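DM from R.C. (forwarded with permission)

"hey, sorry to bug you on a friday — could you get me a structure for this? deadline for the figure draft is monday and I only need the backbone to look sensible"
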Amino acid sequence: MSRQPPRRPPLLVSACLLGLRCRYDGAARPLPLLLDYARREPVLPACPEQLGGLATPRPPAWIEPGADGDAVLDGRARVLALGPDGEEDRTAAFRRGAEEALALARLGGCRAALLKERSPSCGVWQLSRDGRVEPGRGVAAALLARAGLALLGDETPDLAAELERWHEADR
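My reply, with the result:
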């Protein structure tokens, strides 16, 4: 009887990075390195904004100036989007999506996540606001970090080496 090596826990991944068309504009941002990784290793795709009940496509959203996902989780800031009558509060959907992404990560036994930078949900180190890139964390990224998941952004320098380091830590 042969013994199989223990299964590595899946990596939670922003679904748009795996080619799923779930971004606010209905597009995907497939990352070739990640697509290759997903052929060899277990991944668990998630789109916190869809998990929070938002449609695709949807108006672009942003976290209020001077704030980030931690401030949203703490009730000190909101997530806004342009609607037909001006700015609309999308905070509840973003918080719900973050909670669902965390529930999915726990269900799958994920210990780490690779997320889309600049997103108001998934940004690990960067957020996009008014066409500018600013430091900050998205709502889902903030909640996942609070829960102890290791986070990487899709723009992490030498991402392949970072993924390999995670593998070594999981052995």
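R.C.: lifesaver. Residues 11-116+129-170 form one domain.
me: no worries. The mean pLDDT is 93.
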